[in-house]
Amino acid sequence: MEKNWWKEAVVYQIYPRSFMDSNGDGIGDIKGIISKLDYLKELGVDVVWLSPVYQSPNDDNGYDISDYRKIMDEFGTMDDWDEMLKEMHDRGIKLVMDLVVNHSSDEHAWFAESRQSKDNPYRDYYIWRPGKDGKEPNNWESVFSGSAWKYDEATDEYFLHLFSKKQPDLNWENPNLRNEIYEMMKFWLDKGIDGFRMDVINFISKEEGLPDADNPEGKPFAPGGQHFMNGPRIHEFLKEMNKEVLSHYDVMTVGEMPGVSPDEGILYTDAEENELNMVFQFEHMDLDTEPGKSKWHVKPLDLRDLKHSLSRWQKGMQGKGWNSLYWNNHDQPRIVSRFGDDRSYRVESAKMLATCLHMMQGTPYIYQGEEFGMTNVRFDSIQQYKDIETHNMYKERVIENKEDPAEVMNSIYIKGRDNARTPIQWDDSKNGGFTEGTPWIEVNPNYKEINAKAALEDSASIFHYYKNLINLRKNHEIIVYGSYELILEEDPEIFAFIREYNGEKLLVAANFSGNNPEFRLPEGFELKEPELLVANYEGQHEGTYEGFTMRPWEARVYKF
Length: 560
Ligand code: NOJ
Description:
It is built from 16 helices and 20 strands. It is an alpha/beta fold. Helix 8 (262-269) runs parallel beside helix 9 (303-317), helix 11 (346-358) runs parallel beside helix 15 (462-475) and helix 12 runs antiparallel to helix 13. The chain is globular, with a radius of gyration of 23 Å.
């Protein structure tokens, strides 16, 4: 397998609005990020993925961009950004920017032109269609609830928006639009950035004719994913982007891709295909959702589903493509609350989850606050939530469909995106040290106990454990490049696997429960000279790699 820096890197995601506020307006900003770079250096991460900092009216917190070459006022200036990049590079940290080009903001100058008239030169930068029998052009549903079409009086047509009404989809069929995007990418790359994370990039090619989605339940709208996920021209577009732009720079690219399979993952990430380096896939994020239903219909996780899913990706990509590894991002609930136990075993389960993920093959991503075990939040009132997806869903289900508000709030507690977006809890001072002003979204009340300062001061903290995992990766090539084999496939509580590389082996055993299951190594493994490489309990370790009683949420990694 070819060695690359981005395979060996650990990435840290910053969601700027919630990271650190430097000027007391309650909103995180670029100067705030600069003030925390030593903290990231201490953690040992190699790359920062920065969620959007471009000019935006903030309908979807920056994922609705009105000028791709300007910095959002609330976050600072281009000079601040230049300084941030320099300060990162001075510390040996690379910067990956977010590229949001499936859609723009409706306040982008292109859209202002596009909606003027049907013969405006920018008309075809977006996807416009006449209505059908006085209704929307098709039955597609927006990811953020309701129809994916909005009627625009000026030209008596509808435009497509797979996300909010203020996020019109760009028309990638138009070569002029594609060229504008490539030029914009070069603008940032020439400023010295080290790559892009590409927002829902497998949505950019829509099926010709935009056919209706299957709708067996006869609902007003239906998810149209089959007609725009991994669409007919997607590989052609990405190959073109690679040829025109990416191939001229030594950068890392990761495509966010809902609804992708390992086989497709290979097509996107096989070096010979000349498209992207890795994808974010979502299979493991959907396992606590009722099959076929929206993410809000939650069900408990069956560990066997998680093992089988992640293993399918590990095996499927092995030697052909490249995985990214993540438990969290700004759209997902906090992992310690989701697959761990944030009450009785917060520290143990957070460390166990980190061990399991960081010992797999792929590039690990840490989402801000994960490194010291931040948890989900439970606000009493829907008004305390800020996320557009959450509000649209609440409106549809509680106000329009008259569903039980308590039940809907419960699904927000479990799945809402604001779980990940409460401000970073830096210390135990007011607002967790995030801002001197009033935070744009309330701080999780547990900041007095759970915060970065406390974690830094405690050598047994989750923070120091992550630091150790990152360090191990730097010193053991097997963690990066080793092959992967799941063992104990059907065990409902233990996730265990074996890695192998150049005659070395690793055994990873992780207990995903608060119980005491017996770990037994299956027969037939030639393992010699064990060394306990890392474990989430301190002190004496009873038993051996061949068999031991696992403590609640215990994780051990043996090296042979
Ligand atoms: C995926 C992003 O991660 C999410 O935050 C955003 O709302 C949508 N794409 C639309 O840009």
